[in-house]
Q: What sequence folds into this?
């Protein structure tokens, strides 16, 4: 069969789809036609274009550009026409070839620069990447996988776009697998690759070479990233340890780090436990009870970003924003900026880096903190024996003993009154204010009032306060009221007093309640306010 | 690093609450802010997402008064716990003087606790600070879940997981109810001040 007739037959067999193109048969036909027209450049040119288009169609199959097959049919049609018409005017032949070449170039540009990707596709991709940036969860990772897989299939015919997407896919998958162990710049790298893809999609006038350069740059960054994450280093070891742990055995934290020689992992360190009683006690208000109280609500400084910087928090917030704006490497720049600021502000200041040296705090530190936190018993009294025990163990003098310190809370609300004689109390608390505060916390806890020991202590505190305030009739009268109410509620009031309605009035006849400071609720509050008014 | 102004006799120390996400760092600060409202006097700065997660950090500064003539100012910070915010965590750690590591006792948080502590070590390393030398207190938070159906690790397990090398003082705690929150804070302040007392007093 005449090769051109054969060619026509093949072309006619092409329908609307390019999936059935048999590249080998086509190549063999072309190779038979070629030598016959080796001295006819016009035919050779058309044959080359035909060959390239056929290969493109065979490689892209269904993903091939819709214009590819019609163009191939047209070129082959013209080729057959030239071959079958031996006396065709050369000018006409040149014009036909030139026209086909132009059409071929236009098509070439189309397949290079204009993939069928729209704004919606890019927005979808951006959304899933930002979602990962916000939180690495199964949901965000699944969404990422779905969107990227769809786009990969859609852009299969566009090498540059497809390669960008493949990189995005690989980085995203890596972050999904590594999660916490992913290098800190992984997400910013993922975002930057996406931004470059977005740039080439949105910039229609970008030439093929410009796109290629951008892609090559990102490929190089990708290779660096790959090398960096495959480097064996401390974190990799920690990661390996964690993976081993996941499989069943947990490797303690910092096992990959060289430890201080004095430390022996077998020994346990002081642990202050929280007792069942403390856990179930209902006398502590939960931390977030008045979360919505406007006076206690933490300040939202999001709106203050450009105002004068008042606190280290404002400066830190600015630094974080600056770091985000600067992207990769921004953290170092911010740190440098801080260092410069520090240098200019450090005149008159000394800086010390605290070192854990097992120093025993001087007494003033403990007493100040106890006072600030309203603590009665320094917790170090509880932990001291344990720490001593550990030192012994470190020296190897004694056997390893488990060092768990029973919990005692130093919170004001937890502190139990202790028996102290009145003389000592007077020297420790001459104004009686501390005793009053303790009395208040004791009385406030109804559960404690069932405890005889506590009641005794309350009685002692009241007696002490009566001694301390013996010259202050108002305070004494209020104390009498407290005593009376306590006795009444506890059922310990002597019968003759309980039945006498004037008893309270008799005891408070010297006190004009209207003269007491206002704005304080309750009797204890009124007494406390006397200290401040 | 602790800032000491010898002219004005002021000392400023920075304590950072560090730990895995949703471990209770912010709740610690909120409890302190609420309980010692009268003493603290300053306001707490908190930047959260809509679902109550720390976006950048929390900040609670307060003065504890004078020790041997020096005014002591404490700045408490928390870091964002979410994995991706490590750069922010590093920035918050800049100039840190003492660390409270808030671990979550829930059984499914075991790995996260370890990962977070390992990362703390690395983050401190960037400032040439050694976790083994910096004043540090461990807090095993959410111990109140004991009474619920949620499985938790005994503190001994957490001690081995997190504290077997560091040997830092450790507290079981319930930040939500305030159990041992003050003890933890007092301990870290006390340790930090003790570590610089030779320079000061």
A:
């Amino acid at each position: 069969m005449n090769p051109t007739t054969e060619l026509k037959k093949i072309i006619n067999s092409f329908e609307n789809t390019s999936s059935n193109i048999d590249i080998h048969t086509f190549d063999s036909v072309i190779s038979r036609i070629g030598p016959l027209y080796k001295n006819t450049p016009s035919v050779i040119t058309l044959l080359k274009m035909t060959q390239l288009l056929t290969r493109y169609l065979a490689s892209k199959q269904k993903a091939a550009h819709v214009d590819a097959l019609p163009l191939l049919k047209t070129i082959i049609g013209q080729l057959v026409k030239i071959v079958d018409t031996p006396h065709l005017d050369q000018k006409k032949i040149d014009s036909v070839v030139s026209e086909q070449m132009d059409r071929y170039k236009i098509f070439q540009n189309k397949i290079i620069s204009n993939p069928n990707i729209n704004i919606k596709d890019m927005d979808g991709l951006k959304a899933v990447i930002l979602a990962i940036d916000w939180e690495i969860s199964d949901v965000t990772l699944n969404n990422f996988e779905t969107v990227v897989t769809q786009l990969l299939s859609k852009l299969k015919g566009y090498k540059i776009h497809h390669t960008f997407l493949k990189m995005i896919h690989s980085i995203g998958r890596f972050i999904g697998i590594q999660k916490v162990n992913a290098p800190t710049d992984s997400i910013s790298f993922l975002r930057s690759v996406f931004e470059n893809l977005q740039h080439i999609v949105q910039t229609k006038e970008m030439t093929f070479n410009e796109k290629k350069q951008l892609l090559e740059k990102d490929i190089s960054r990708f290779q660096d990233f790959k090398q960096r994450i495959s480097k064996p280093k401390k974190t990799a070891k920690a990661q390996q340890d964690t993976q081993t742990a996941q499989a069943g055995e947990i490797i303690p934290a910092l096992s990959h780090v060289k430890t201080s020689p004095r430390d022996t992992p077998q020994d346990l360190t002081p642990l202050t436990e929280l007792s069942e009683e403390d856990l179930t006690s209902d006398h502590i208000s939960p931390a977030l009870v008045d979360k919505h109280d406007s006076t206690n609500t933490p300040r939202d400084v999001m709106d203050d970003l450009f105002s004068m910087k008042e606190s280290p928090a404002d400066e830190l917030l600015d630094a974080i924003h600056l770091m985000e704006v600067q992207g990769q490497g921004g953290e170092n720049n911010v740190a440098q900026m801080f260092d410069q600021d520090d240098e200019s502000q450090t005149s008159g200041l000394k800086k010390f880096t605290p070192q854990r040296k097992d120093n025993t705090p001087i007494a003033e530190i403990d007493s100040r903190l106890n006072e600030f936190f309203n603590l009665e018993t320094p917790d170090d009294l509880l932990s001291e024996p344990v720490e001593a025990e550990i030192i012994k163990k470190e020296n190897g003098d004694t056997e390893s003993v488990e060092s768990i310190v029973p919990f005692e809370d130093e919170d004001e609300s937890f502190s139990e009154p202790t028996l102290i004689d009145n003389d000592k109390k007077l020297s420790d608390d001459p104004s009686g204010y501390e005793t009053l505060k303790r009395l208040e916390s004791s009385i406030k806890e109804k559960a404690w009032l069932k405890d005889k020991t506590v009641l005794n202590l309350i009685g002692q505190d009241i007696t002490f306060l009566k001694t301390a305030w013996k010259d202050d009739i108002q305070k004494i009268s209020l104390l009498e009221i407290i005593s009376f109410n306590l006795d009444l509620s506890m059922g310990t009031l002597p019968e003759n007093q309980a039945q006498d309605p004037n008893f309270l009035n008799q005891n408070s006849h010297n006190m004009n309640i209207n003269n007491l400071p206002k704005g304080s609720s309750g009797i204890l509050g009124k007494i406390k306010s006397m200290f401040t008014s | 690093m602790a800032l000491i102004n010898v002219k004005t006799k002021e000392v400023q120390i920075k304590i950072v609450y560090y730990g895995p996400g949703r471990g209770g760092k912010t709740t610690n600060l909120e409890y302190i802010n609420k309980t010692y409202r009268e003493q603290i006097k300053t306001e707490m700065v908190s930047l959260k997402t809509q679902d109550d997660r720390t976006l950048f950090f929390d900040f609670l500064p307060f003065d504890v008064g004078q020790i041997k003539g020096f005014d002591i100012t404490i700045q408490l910070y928390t870091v964002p716990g979410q994995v991706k915010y490590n750069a922010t965590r590093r920035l918050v750690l800049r100039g840190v003087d003492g660390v409270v590591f808030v671990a979550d006792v829930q059984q499914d948080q075991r790995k996260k606790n370890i990962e977070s502590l390992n990362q703390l070590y690395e983050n401190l390393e960037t400032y040439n600070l050694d976790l083994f030398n910096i004043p540090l207190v461990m807090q095993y938070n959410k111990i109140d879940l004991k009474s619920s159906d949620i499985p938790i690790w005994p503190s001994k397990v957490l001690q081995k997981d997190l504290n077997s090398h560091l040997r830092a003082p450790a507290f079981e705690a319930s930040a939500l109810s305030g159990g041992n929150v003050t003890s933890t804070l007092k301990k870290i302040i006390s340790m930090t001040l003790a570590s610089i007392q030779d320079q000061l007093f």
In short: The helical segments of chain B are 25-35, 37-40, 86-93, 110-125, 155-163, 181-200. The radius of gyration of chain B is 16 Å. The mean pLDDT of chain B is 89. The longest helix of chain B spans residues 181-200.
